[in-house]
Automatic annotation (TrEMBL):
Name of the molecule in the record: Peroxidase
PANTHER family: ALPHA-DIOXYGENASE 1 (PTHR11903:SF11), PROSTAGLANDIN G/H SYNTHASE (PTHR11903)
The protein's required cofactors: Ca(2+)
GO molecular-function terms, A-Z: heme binding; metal ion binding; oxidoreductase activity, acting on single donors with incorporation of molecular oxygen, incorporation of two atoms of oxygen; peroxidase activity
Key words, A-Z: Dioxygenase, Fatty acid biosynthesis, Fatty acid metabolism, Heme, Iron, Lipid biosynthesis, Lipid metabolism, Metal-binding, Oxidoreductase, Oxylipin biosynthesis, Peroxidase, Plant defense
GO biological processes: defense response; fatty acid biosynthetic process; oxylipin biosynthetic process; response to oxidative stress
Organism expressing this protein natively: Mycobacterium noviomagense
Amino acid sequence: MIGLREQLRAHNLYGTGRGKDDRPDSDDPYINEHLTARTLNGSYNDLDDPLMGSVKSRFGRNVPLRYVKPEDPPIRPPDPRRISRELLARTDFQPATTLNLLAAAWIQFEVHDWVQHAVVDKPEPWKIELDAEDDWGQKIGERPADGKMRIKRTAPDPSQDVHGPRTFVNQNSHWWDGSQIYGTTKEYAEALRKQGTGMLNIDEDGLAPREKVDQKLGYDGQDGNFWVGLALLHSLFMREHNAICERLTAEYPDMTPDDVYQKARLINVALMAKIHTIEWTPAIIAHPTTVFAMRANWFGLFGERFKRWFGRVTTSEILKGIPGSPTNHHGVPYSLTDDFIAVYRMHSLLPDDFDFYSVKTGEYIGKRKLCDLTMGKIEGQEIGNVRQALRDFKGMEDIFYSFGLAHPGAVTLHNYPHTLRDFKHADGVHMDLAAIDILRDRERGIPRYNEFRRLFRLKAASTFEELTGDLAIAEELRKIYRDVEQVDLMVGLHAEPKPPGFGFSDTAFRVFILMASRRLESDRFFTRDFTPEVYTPAGMDWISQNSMRTVLLRHFKSLEPALRGVKNPFTPWAAVNDQTLDEPPATPTYVEWSERLERRPPDEDEVITKIIDVLHKNNEWTYKRNNKHAIRDAHAKSHGILQGKLTVELDGDDLEQGLFKKGARYDVIARFSSTAGAIRSDQLRGVRGLAIKVLGVDDKALGVEERKRALAGDHARTQDFLLVTHREFPFADAHEYYKKGMPLARLLARVPDLVLARFIDLAVLADRLHLPLPTTVALFVTPNRPILGETFYSSAPLRFGKYVAKLALVPSSDSVKQLQNKEIDAAAGENAHTDAVKKFFKTNTAVYELRVQLCTNTEAMPIENAKVPWSETASPHRRVATITFPPQNPYSDARREFGDDVLSFNSWRALDVHRPLGSINRLKLRVYKASSQFRHEMNNVPAVEPTDIAQLPNYDPVFAVGSGRSGSHPQKPTT
């Protein structure tokens, strides 16, 4: 990563000079304090070049200037409106499930600090002819009479060099200086300040008082993009500024109000920069390597603890991080770039619909459309939508909480918000922002996608299929562009497959990693003047000791339950009624099973068919690689095939459901396994599995309805329970599994052990640094513990008689409980788990408790979303049975062959009273059936569904439930 950054600095920084009029309109009010304070207009950050990065300085470029070729007009086919309609328009909302909605609001909040182009009325706007069938504007009564969409032109550089490339100037300063809060003019800054103090004015809505600042804002530009998400963050860091002022006043009572204001501004901005660098960035590019690199930007390779303990012992930015290192422009005067703006077009992050919940009760309190949360005015009112929403929800706590729960949209094609494609801006202009995004890149000379990649030394796509990796999307691109060289940059970035954990493309990441460090290392106040002398010792402590979490909780204490256990506040929070009850309800009410609880999406079967097709290819590949012997496409490697006994032992009469009759006993066959679809080394961390087959469940002690099977035509006498070592399933449903789980399945089936081991090492390192990891990556960081000491979960829900439940199997006897905190010896070999199981059962007995967790609330404990945790406090797991495994030979050749080749396990081989529920279980029904059929056909081994424990090779008749019987119940009393 360091090498890549150095290459980018050498080849992708280009200055554009300064014209005679490219400068702030007036002198700055803080010009005399510039050595120890930021000016408002950005001047005097660089003392040798005072205008560098100031307001109305030119944007630089990240590509050689000879490749800057603005298109005139920028509306040639395919025109931007067609691209908006056919490639960008949202079909179904595609969520970015590793992030929450605060992450979307945050990046807009920061971009409003960094960049702003002006637009002009003259020359006349660009005009795009609307197709006859295009209904743009009709919904809001703004259809252009002449059938043409108008888009104002970007304001030209007032000092354009007629012999050079076209340039544009920034209406903001280029520095990371909090101008979205503090402004860039004396008039706005003074209107915002509370007289006689260093603090900011905050009104009853939590915002800057309208009567003081409204006349200082220009709603035809960036200010008109204000919405509730920005309101939250503006309010949060205005409050933080005031909290810093209080700290400074307490520490330094002789400090003047102006000095308090300036120091608080410095500290607040540095804290925002820190949050962006080590919290927001790791959330949106949650790959261990990049996460580590971003933390190294701030703390250096030595890390945070070293910096805290020993201070800055070297000037090296690599070893000790950029803050406090020498200022370095790398030979090019600092500015932000038009190419940087182009890759930050992420409006797809915004949903069209927002759900709101109470942070105190978790209850649903309302829905709003995006258009209801923007700057738009409400008929007959002056306060506008934003303030009305804040008042409707009686403050910001519930809105913050709801944003913490909600996902933003994924930055991908067909996910641009409907609202932003057909809406009236705060200045009254009707616009399609998606079309504007495409037009702006063309107008400003941003190279098309392939050329852009070449200029960053990346391979250009030779075909549409190579660009996107998706045949259907490739065909859509071909229909619009015909030539892959013509694909617009934004479209290519949205279509490009994303690396694991990334919220945006690898191409965009090149610009990101270059400019993320440049914003810091060119800024005097983050480098040579990032010192106690400039910031004060209290200020340096404030920056060091605080984070997004502490800022949120300082000003909104009620958010604490939702942030409990959340490593990164930009990742999804916990639902309060799901995770944070202090004690169980006095009289819990359990949800009763009903067919209406399940809600199957109309295209689910189609998605599952696609999954089966991909897994079938995995099966064929492993079949050829495995000497033409078929194995399971998941849980391929077994570690023991065990004879056991299930004895019903109920922690409450209400748990007597289905096969769990008081005193009932059943023979069981269990198969311990690792979940990969390949035979891998036991030294690799990962998920383990346990399949339990309960025999003799057709016993007449069960009623007629209780003996009914989950699937028509199933005549088995068994009940299968499939358990794994992760409590929640890593994917919500079949659709998410298809999008995100299939790459993991392919990885686990095909990647060599050595490569997977290195990947796991990186994930473990990231976890030790307390960096957020995608759910799929987090599965690999849990310690590699003995499989017999693990706790196993059903992950997805099932019917439990009249109720709905999840299952857990927990070590009970001391013989297995003592294994819970141990780890597999690295020298134990590639079959360490199997060898340990064989050794254990030579002399030992293992006892486990089978427990159920009953559903109490389908909102907090959803049926169709398998990755949402069910609260242990709201509904603790309760024992329904014990399962005992006596001493035996669990892995004889005959046992292994029986468990791996003859038997099949499927949670749908079940009584109807224990039928699996939800999308993930419906997926498993067909996937496991297809996998089993392939395995048995290719190996020419008939599938056998046992009716008696005697069919298990080397079974122990003494331990069996009864002679020739696999299930027994207490005798019913005679009458």
